[in-house]
Design brief:
26% helix; Neutral Protease, domain 2; alpha+beta; Immunoglobulin-like; eight-stranded mixed β-sheet; five-stranded mixed β-sheet; 3 domains
Amino acid sequence: MMVSRVALLLAGLSLTAAALPQKGEPPITAQTQKSGGAIDPDQAKLTFAAADLAFEILPETQSLRGIATLDFAARAPLARLVVDLDRNLPVESIAIDGTDLRPDAWTNPEGQLRITLPHTVPAGRHVIARIVYGGQPHVAVKAPWDSGMVWSTTPDGATWFATTAEGIGCDLFWPCLDFPTGKPGVVTLHITVPHGLKAPSNGVLLGVDTLADGRTRWNWRVKRPTTYGIALNVGPYEQLSGSYKSRFGNTIPLFYWYLPGEDAPARALFAEFAPTLDFFESQIGPYPFGDEKVGVVETPHKGMEHQTINAYGNGYAKAPEGFDWLFQHEFAHEWFGNQLTAADWDDYWLHEGYAEYMQPLYGRWREGDARYAVMMDDQRNKIANLRPIVSGTVRTEEQVYEIAKGGPGQDIYYKGAWMLHTLRGLIGDRAFRDVTRLAVYGRLDPRPGNFVPRYGTTAEFERIVRRVTGKDYGWFFDVYLRHAALPDLIETRTPTRLSVHWNAPGGRPFPLPVEVQVGGRVVRLPMSAGFGSVAVAPGTHVVVDPAARVLRRSIAVEQYQAWRDDQGRKRATTTAKD
């Protein structure tokens, strides 16, 4: 019996602890580093029908073994199959439609596995590739802000392992189509772990097999997962479970996997599941994956929106708003990210802007306007306005998320949230709800079973707003999404009148209405063509935008941010000297 090349490699890795990869190792190529961007022409011919993924987790060598059976439908005649897979996971064998290929039929020098098919696959036909691979996958430096494997141990020394792949992509540990529209129709997972460990993952648990050597194999199935949403989680977990009777008539299973010895804080977090779910269902619509589960797992990294198995690593931190912000934020992504998925990373604000806005809306739902205002004010101080949120070009995840690579960075969170806040004030609560439902579900009457996950774009979102309101708000989105600078509201006061006008980037008219408090009354100025005025009696106190409904330039915020950043630099210099 021949010993496989992968088995020999893994055996060699176990000889010495020095062979274990450190953070950031093994290095990855620019191709693997990239997630999204321009789609390879051969990949554009594929519809990803299904994947069957078998993993063996080998903590002693920090290695993975994998067998991926991938089912693709050809949109056009296909002579070559191209999938993304980090070259740190060398391929042992490939079979196409049950026929083994010679090793010279594939190549993977840079992290994109190119397979020459034994025959051309006609349009409309399926091709099934079985890929056996394995090795030491890339270890994250600071997950989840970068991607990779997270190998850790619990306080009592047990293995605690997780994957995170949003930034670099799914190709870090399984062969996939590493771009947002590369979702497979269904994924079945088989995760084999050492004795005593558990492997909660995406979707529905099909069963747990006990192997002859004492290891266990955890079998899961998930429908239409996001490309980066597949997650492996391994640890000596305890489990809390329950169910939620939805206001839409279905019953949704609830699960939380946590480390031993944390019963009290784990139960407190689990108690947040149902009210948070009720908020989202009442304000947005049905939980998108009610026929699978609400799943959360404690991880050795901060968190990530892995579909139906959200990662939680917030340490049960307490906050003045009275709920766990990280749990709530990642859970929001089940609607904004997993149900509604940006078709290109350039539209990433649809995920993060909406998810960020859900937190002050939840605060308002729980406690009222005061909590909402406090949380919105905190977000306002974090808006940087360095780059436009949307470029109008095809971009990678890094080109959006990282300022150093020309992206808007965290403005997709905070500026995106404030834009939505301003939009809600502009079009009203009912229209905003309808816009959100159409963006998330593609319909105004979502019910369990009458919708599936969908892709969205900024252009589509603008069309939805126009459809719901009957008005063209292109001027609004051009300023907030396609320009970095904020519109400036200029005030001019005479003894008897206050005049205001918008100075918007790009020089276009910006007819965004503004409220003005004049003494004890509030007047709404329509700002036709960007100008408005109101009569003011001499000595009357005036406050422009008293409820802070509008995202606009603030000199006070700019001065605060400059001071804050300067203080940060001084602290960093002092620390470096020490």
